[in-house]
Amino acid sequence: MAAVQVSSPNFTEGREGTAVDRIVIHYIVGTLAAADTTFSDPNSGVSAHYGIGEGEIHQFVDEANTAWHAGDWNFNLRSIGIEHSADPSRAPTQDTYNKSIDLCATICRTYGLDPQSQIVPHSFVVSTDCPGTVDIQAIRDGVSAIL
Ligand SMILES: [Zn+2]
């Protein structure tokens, strides 16, 4: 499924020569519309490459550029960040999982990533509740089943 382009001013051109070797999984704590609002706002200072929810995939930052999502500069340089529509009392829908699995499979093929070890939760990078209600192992296993 083609991603809808939603521009964000919150990114750094290029990756300082760093290769992509991780996908970082996040939850929005809201809907995809909330991510659109936050990532379009230059004052928020945050972004991600992709957001998934409510039947759509939005791309905010080109994969060749560094999005501001991980809370750790080196991890921003080396990773692609994907946001999921969910909150603490609402898990992602099956459609959101399915779209995430397809997107992650494409990214794993493109960069030669192992889904079991190179798709990581935001909480792997810094101390955070993110990705909350997202079942990251379901995403890893779904991607493994495709590859
Ligand atoms: Zn996060």
Automatic annotation (TrEMBL):
Chain ranges of the N-acetylmuramoyl-L-alanine amidase domain: 8-132
Any one GO BP annotation for this protein: peptidoglycan turnover
InterPro entries: Amidase/PGRP_sf (IPR036505), Amidase_domain (IPR002502), NAMLAA_amidase_2 (IPR051206)
Keyword presence, Cell wall biogenesis/degradation: yes
Protein EC: 3.5.1.28
Keywords for the protein's UniProt record, in alphabetical order: Cell wall biogenesis/degradation, Hydrolase
Domain of life of the organism encoding this protein: Bacteria
Reactions catalysed: Hydrolyzes the link between N-acetylmuramoyl residues and L-amino acid residues in certain cell-wall glycopeptides
Pfam families per record: Amidase_2
SMART domains noted in UniProt: Ami_2
Gene Ontology terms for molecular function: N-acetylmuramoyl-L-alanine amidase activity
Name of protein: N-acetylmuramoyl-L-alanine amidase
Organism expressing this protein natively: Rothia koreensis
Classification of source organism: Bacteria, Bacillati, Actinomycetota, Actinomycetes, Micrococcales
